[in-house]
Amino acid sequence: MSEPVPVRGPLARLIDVQPGEGRALAWSWAYIFSILAAYYVLRPIRDQMGVAGGIENLPWLFTATLVGMLCLNLPFAYLVKRMPRARFVPITYRFFAANILAFALTLYLAPPEWGIWTGRVFFVWLSIFNLFVVSIFWATIVDVFSNAQGKRLFGFIAAGATVGAIAGSATTAILAKNVPTWGLMLCAVLLLELAVFCMRGLAVLSTRLHEVPGSGQGVEDGQDRTIGGSVLAGVTRTLASPYLLNISLFLLLFSVTSTFLYFEQAGIAKRSFPDRGSQTAFFASVDLAVNVLTLGIQLFLTGRIVNRLGVAFTLGILPAFSILGFAALAVWPTIGVIVAFQVLRRAGNFAIARPVREVLFTVVPREDRYKAKSFIDTVVYRLGDQVGAWSFTGIQGIGLGSASIAGVAVPLSMAWLVNSVWLGRAQERRRIDQEAGGGDPAGSAAPLRPASASSGR
């Protein structure tokens, strides 16, 4: 294999990319771009359908989403057990693409009176789709890159998600009033197929980069190896591990507080915009604002923040900001404060908290990277939605308003901050133990390593 050409120029100055990492970074970037563009084409449609179905019914839709997550986790775990990564990832994405085609056909052919129930089913489905496809992406990335590479590169990879989200939300914001909903759905199908193509490109490159020089054969990087284990391992291994349980708590507290803000935003949209097209355009515009802000942070700050502050302090940024934001909302429960807080908080999650949270999985066994991670990213996340949705409904049911909801969120965010610091320190201890033991955790794949003179590449 020829000597890799070091990445130079503006990219090398923007992020700390090492020789041999550039092509893998590009495939990863295009891969997540395609997924998020597909999702953000569909997200404003989901939000509008959720509002059209009645805000009072949103808690029931969140309940249905949790049930759907539980049902889908078992067949996915079976695929992970029986098939190598190169097979179960495309199968999963194409399953969801077939679902989108079915929704598009239904909207095209179904009578108008089917609209409300079609919208409710689509709301539940997209809430499942989003978490599954993104979780699978990050599990694949964690399987390819090492812990040290994750700290340097995951923020920039996440920028691909943001550019995809900007492209998707801008497309829907521009076309929603003139293009039928089913036409937008067909765009999402094409983008998912592009994601499969990029995933295969990354997989082939991963295999080549792990070849033993001069042997003509690659070392095992997980591409062609089945993971095995139990179908229920995602649940059992999560419950048996304090580390994974605390990752679950991190996501649970984030989800509960996010749901509080989402319901407030949905109420604002219904009161402020008279028709479906305007509501869809509003949701898309909020998404666009979030993603433009996120992109700037990811390109210029995320990697530097992680390297300077470490995982523990970086994880604590979002809960610390949430304490301040909910406190402000308790004092000034206005539309402007809610929207500004939502935009800043979501940007902080996408730009900082999400890529750093993925670093937590670089120090766990490979089976946990797919099974436990999938369970945490989907079922635990949606369980948080349930707690948040029904808590929101209960607080409103006893006649309390936004200030009271924010008051409940402040102590939750404080507990979240403590949990974040504990997780960051636990990750560092695991990383040190892993390096002292001479490699990755048992059962993990060999991570992508930058080329060096000693490697002969």
From TrEMBL:
**Where is this chain compositionally biased, Low complexity type?**
442-457
Out of the domains of life, which is the source? Answer: Bacteria
Q: Quick one: where's region Disordered?
A: 433-457
TM annotation in the entry: 24-42, 58-79, 91-110, 122-141, 153-176, 182-203, 243-262, 282-301, 313-341, 398-422
Entry keyword set: Membrane, Transmembrane, Transmembrane helix
Protein name as catalogued: MFS transporter
Per the UniProt entry, what species is this protein from, by scientific name? Answer: Methylobacterium longum
